Amino acid sequence: MKIRKQVWTKRAAAMLSLVAVTLPMVTNVTTASAKSKSTNVAALLKPHQADYGYLVDEYHHNLDNMTYMTPTSDPVIGVVNGFTKYWSKGQVVDKAMIDLNLAKAAKVTQERSESEMERSYFSDRRDLRYNLISGLGPYAPAFIKNANAQTNYLSMPSTPLPAKYSPKSPTWASPDSKLGPLVKLVNVAEGSPYSGINSPKHYLAMPRPYRLSTDVKPLPAIKEIMAHANPTSFDLPSGHTTAAFDSGIAFAYALPQRFQELVTRSSEVGYDRILAGRHSPLAVMGGRMTGTAIAAAVLNDPANQDIAKNGYQAAQSSDLLGSKDTTAQDDFKSYEKNRQDYRYRMTYGFDQTGDTHQAMRVPKGAEVLLKTRLPYLNDTQRRAVLFTTGMPSGYPGMDDAEGWGRLDLFSAANGYGALLDNAKVNMNAKKGTFNAKDTWKNNISGAGHLTKAGTGQLTLSGANKYSGGTTLQGGTLQIANTKGLGAGNVKLTKGNLKLATTQVTIRGQFQQAKTGKLTLSRASHLTIKKNAKLNGTLKLTQGHLKKGAKLITYKKHTGKFKHVQGLPKGWHVVYTKHAVKLAK
Question: Of 43, 118, 393, 518, which residue is least crowded by CB atoms under 10 Å?
C-alpha cells in the first residue's frame, strides 16, 4: 500500500468540536421499556452468540501465529470486526471516518503538555504490566516493594533514542515475591498465549496514524524508533491498550477497592498511545474492547480459578491492602475527573453514526468482571448491572455481536443503572470489603423493587427514579440524595433507614415496623407524599434544636414511634395531623 502523507480534510478538522462531548451517566436505556416480568428480564440478559460462538469459550483460538484469521475462527477478530466498516484489509472503506480519526490523533499530538509527553513515554517504554501500578495510588509503594517491581525507565531522554534502542529490561515484578500470587494473576491475564492481538491487527491491516498523516506528531523521544518500525506493525487494535485493560482488570479484580481508579488508568494508557502518535482513537477504542474481553475470558477459564483466588487473597492481605501509604502520590484521587476521563475515552467524541436503536447485550461471562467489586450480588444481578449501565449503540466499531464494546465498567462499579425486576441485595458485613459497606452512585430508573437485607450498609446517592418501591429488611440503608428512595412506597421492616442529607422525599407510602429504626439529624426533614404508618424507633442525631421544627411531614399518619432517641432532657416529639415536630 502506498503511504499517504496527509489524508485528513477540513471537514474532519471542523468536526473536532466533538471532543467536548460529555456522555450521559446512564445509557439511553434500551432497558427503559422492559417489563418487570422475570421471563422478559431473563431474555434481556441472555448472552447473544456471535458467529464465532462465545469469546470466553473460544478465546484459545486467538493465536499470534495467525492460525485463525477470520471473524468466525478467531473471536478477538470477531470483536473488532465492526471497524472493517471504516478500514479493511489494508484499504480505506470510509474516508470521512478515517480522516476524522486522524484529525483527532493529530490534535492530541499537537497539543500535548510536557507532563503528558513524559507519561506517554513511560507508557510506551515500560513493561505493559508495570504501566498499571500508578493506578494503585496509595498502595503502589507496597506493591513495588512486596512484588519486587522494577523498571529501568525512570526519566525521559532529552534527545531521541536510537532507532534500534532495546535494552534488556528487568522482570516487571516477581512471581516469587510476597505478592507473587497477584503477580501471577496479572501475568496470566496479559501474558497468556491467547491475549495477543497480532491476528486482528493483520486482519484489519490499518497503518499507524503517523504513517498516514504528517500532522500526527511522533513523540520526540521515540521518533526514530517509530520512523524505523516495521510497516506491518499496525494500528488497530492497540496492543498497549489491550494489555492495559487485561492487566488493569486483573489488578481491579484482586483489589476492587481501586476498581474505578485502575480501569481509569487502563484508559489513560490508551490515551497515552494517542499522545505518543503511536495509535489513533479508533485503535484505542478497539484495544479497550479486546482487553476487556480477554480479561473476562482469563477470569472465566477453569484453568485459572486458583490463580484468580490466590491473587485476590494476596491483594487483600497486609502486604498490599494493609499497607496503605496516604502520603503516596495518587493521580486518580478525583472521582469526578476519573469519571469524565473514562467515559470520554470510551468514544473519543465520535458521533453516533450507526444504528442508535440496538438493544444492549451483555457478553457471556462478562459478569465475572464485577465479581469482587459487587460481591453481594449474584451473577444474574451483575449481568443486570452491566446491562443497565451499558453505552448507547451507534458509536464507531462498538456494536460487536456479543456486546463487549458497550460495557461501561466505570459506571457498572456504581451499581444498577435501572431496576429491571425486583432486586434483593443481601450484604453480610462479616465478609468485609464491599459486603460490609458500599455506595451506588448511579441515578437508578426502572420499574423494579429494591429490597435491602443482611447486615451491611448500602448507600444510595443517586437521584433515583425507580418506581417499584423500597424495602429494608436488615442492616443499614443510607440515603444521600433527596431523591435517593425513588418514586415508590418505602417499607422499613427491620434495620436502620438512615438519612444522610437534610432533605429526603418518599413519593409513595411509608410503613415502619416495630423492629425498624429511622435515623435523621435534628435539622433534617423527611417528606412523605402519601400516608405514613409509624412504629419502631426514631433516632435523631446531632443538629440544631428548634422548637416546632418539622422532622417528618405526611398526608396523614397512623401509629407513633415506640422509642425516640437522641433528644436532650425536656425535649420530645409531637404528632400533628400532617407532621412530626420537635417540642419542649
Answer: 43
Residues whose CB falls within 8 Å of the CB of residue 511, separated by 6 or more in sequence, listed in order? 489, 490, 491, 492, 532, 533
The grid cell for 440 is 451506588
C-alpha to C-alpha distances, 69 to 62, 89, 298, nearest whole angstrom: 9, 11, 21
Select from 528, 525, 522 the least CA-distant residue to 507: 528
Domain boundaries, the chain: 10-412, 422-583
pTM exceeding 0.90: yes
pLDDT-derived band at 64 (thresholds 50, 70, 90) equals confident
Q: What is the CA radius of gyration of the chain?
A: 26
Coil vs helix vs strand at 133: helix
pLDDT bucket at 544, cuts 50 / 70 / 90? confident
Task: Round to whole Å and give the CA distance between 473 and 443.
Answer: 22
pLDDT band at residue 38 under the 50/70/90 scheme: low
Task: Locate 204 and state its grid cell.
Answer: 484489519
Cell of 222: 521515540
User: Which position has the grid cell 469524565?
Assistant: 340
Which H, E and C letters describe 424-467, residue by residue?
Answer: EEEECHHHCHHHCEEEECCCCEECCCEEEEECCEEEECCCCCCC
Q: Which residues contact 350 (CB under 8 A, 6 or more apart)?
A: 18, 100, 281, 395, 396
